[in-house]
Design goal:
Number of strands: 13
Radius of gyration: 41 Å
Strand content: 15-25%
Largest sheet: 6 strands, antiparallel
Number of helices: 1
Strand order of the largest sheet: 4-3-13-12-9-10
Shape: rod-shaped
Helix content: under 10%
Length: about 220
């Protein structure tokens, strides 16, 4: 005999024959346990450098890396282990500045918008600059541009064809030097041959660097 929800014994299994309540089957147990949830998988850690990490710089001239070779001094990054530059101490070489009339006449003959106002100086004393450190800039001093080159060609006399940053000498760990023109207005010549912008070339004693309208820089052996 079935029992209705009110507890009455009933001979019918659809409605209680005592109170008329609808009969119901035995209540189904309710599970208090939810289906297992998938566990989050641990994220793999990147093996590369973090996105905020500073870009690698050339160990020789500190230029930000853009490939296997440094765009300024030509350093090769493919060597085993990080290259550590050695400090270049002493003055193995010196740069002696002066005026070259032959070069001046060549510049004037080639013409140009500023040729008419470029006069050869009646007197230009030689000045010597010891080459030491990792970088020696060549140009004209400018407060407005915060430019203070190590080889300052401001004068007097002042060569109007020299840029504020005209060329750069880069010291190498073995004591040798490279010359590079970073993009001067009037270009740079080494022993009569124009330099390609941002392509470093080796220099040594006896080399002559021409720039501006009449400036010549001669590389000589320095005092150790």
């Amino acid at each position: 005999m079935a029992t209705c929800p009110q507890g009455h014994a009933s001979g019918a299994d659809d409605y209680c024959d005592t109170c008329g309540a609808q009969m119901a089957g035995p209540p189904q147990p309710v599970s208090h346990h939810s289906a297992p949830q998938p566990q989050p998988q641990p994220q793999s850690q990147s093996q590369g450098p973090a996105s905020g990490q500073a870009a690698e710089s050339c160990p020789v001239c500190q230029t930000p890396r853009a490939g296997q070779f440094c765009e300024v001094c030509g350093h090769d990054y493919s060597g085993s282990g990080p290259a550590v530059p050695l400090p270049v101490t002493g003055a193995r070489y010196e740069a002696v500045t002066g005026a070259d009339r032959t070069y001046y006449e060549k510049v004037i003959a080639e013409g140009g918008p500023d040729a008419a106002r470029m006069a050869f100086p009646p007197y230009c004393p030689e000045r010597s600059f010891a080459l030491h450190g990792e970088q020696v800039r060549i140009g004209r001093r400018s407060r407005a541009r915060n430019a203070s080159p190590e080889i300052d060609l401001t004068g007097p006399p002042e060569d109007p064809g020299v840029s504020h940053l005209h060329a750069v000498l880069l010291g190498r760990p073995d004591g040798s030097w490279l010359l590079v023109d970073p993009g001067s207005s009037n270009g740079t010549q080494l022993n009569g041959r124009p330099l390609t912008v941002n392509v470093p070339v080796m220099i040594g004693p006896g080399d002559r660097i021409h720039l501006g309208a009449w400036t010549v820089i001669t590389i000589r052996e320095g005092t150790p």
